[in-house]
Amino acid sequence: MFALVPFSLGWSAQPSSMSPPSVQVAPRLVDGDLAVVFDKQLAALSPDDPRGYYLLGEELLDVAIGPADHQLASQVLILAFESARIAGGHPAVMAGACRALASMPRPSREKRLLESLVAFVDPSSVPPRWMKRQAPTLVDSTPYRLSVLLSLIRGGEGGAAKQALAKVDLRDAVVAIEPFLAKGGVTGGLTALDRYAHAWPCRECGNARIIRKQNTTPPEYVVCPHCAGTPGPEMTYDEYVAQIRLEAWLLQGANRSWAAQLTADDGAPLSDPDPASLCSRLRIDGTKMYWRLGAWVAASQPAQQNPPPALGPTLSLPLASPSP
Questions:
Q1: How far is CA 79 from CA 9, 69, 274, 286, in A?
Q2: How many whole angstroms separate alpha carbon 80 and alpha carbon 96?
């Protein structure tokens, strides 16, 4: 920039001493930085105000980047639930914290526990079961595609099965349900499905199930000797039934059977929605509710004050003796 400076014949352009304003660029956050950025807000939390934990937990969850940030948000939300439980009279905070915790990536059993706690602590926020309608399984959903894949493998439709297994997300889903596949006779999981897909259709009849007898006029047909008229891997009756039950569980049908649920989880008991046990089940120490110096502590402690700066060694001067 230039400024006009007067001289004898008029005005001249001279460089100005004004410098352009500096641009402040916010540093890019990485996983774990939220504990530093929100240190003051965390330190201000108190069990006397459960809603404060809840609001801050949701804010942390909105801006969380990685596992460390999500762990911090999860702990704040759990402490919101625990402080509200101890204080009493905060059902909306307890239910909201459970919903926020259930929205985070976690095992399905923990999600079911959190959902059951919502209905337990705040029944008015949950519609009656008779008003709920079963959501249809979409044809492009992963459970539906998994069910179709199992039927393709079972029927020996190798070409279509190979096309389905070419999708990365479906292969990941197969890995996730490998323990359940073993109950249906598919031992080996994804490797076994790949092997079955490449072994079919039948190399003799192409899954037509019959072949033409040689030198017959008019043509005569017999059952294919290779697949015996039933293309696909050999299965026992129990394995077949287990696969059908697994598909019923995947599709979440309205007429879902107890047998399908038993196939899925071996009849594991449902979690008892006990509010007092939430901290222990989610592996959080509910007694440590105060954030001090970057860690959770049990008792409220004031932030450590910096000691006053040292002034150096003191000099001892001899007292002057009185004048004679």
A1: 77, 16, 16, 6
A2: 9
Single out the residue of 171, 156, 151 nearest to residue 244, CA to CA: 151
pLDDT at 321: 46
Token pair of 64, please? 């969380």
What's the gap between Cα 293 and its chain centre? 29
| Contact (Cβ atoms closer than 8 angstroms) between residue 204 and residue 125 | no
Judge contact between 101 and 108, C-beta under 8 A: no
pTM: 0.48
Cα 120 to Cα 126: distance, rounded to the nearest angstrom:
9
Q: CB of 115 within 8 A of CB of 278?
A: no
User: What are the tens digits of pLDDT across the range 72-128?
Assistant: 999 999 999 999 999 988 999 999 999 999 998 888 788 888 988 988 888 877 655
User: How large is the average pLDDT for residues 24-44?
Assistant: 80
Angstrom CA distances, 141 to 88, 107, 144, 146, 147, stand at 41, 20, 5, 9, 10
**Domains in the chain: boundaries:** 34-131, 142-253
Instruction: Give the tokens for residue 143.
Output: 């459970």
CA angle 110, 111, 114 (to 5 degrees): 85
Helix (H) or strand (E) holding 263: helix 258-265
Instruction: Give residue 135's pLDDT band: very low, low, confident or very high (50, 70, 90).
Output: low
- Band (pLDDT 50/70/90 cuts) for residue 10 is very low
- Give the tokens for residue 72: 């911090």
Tokens 């029944």 belong to: 123
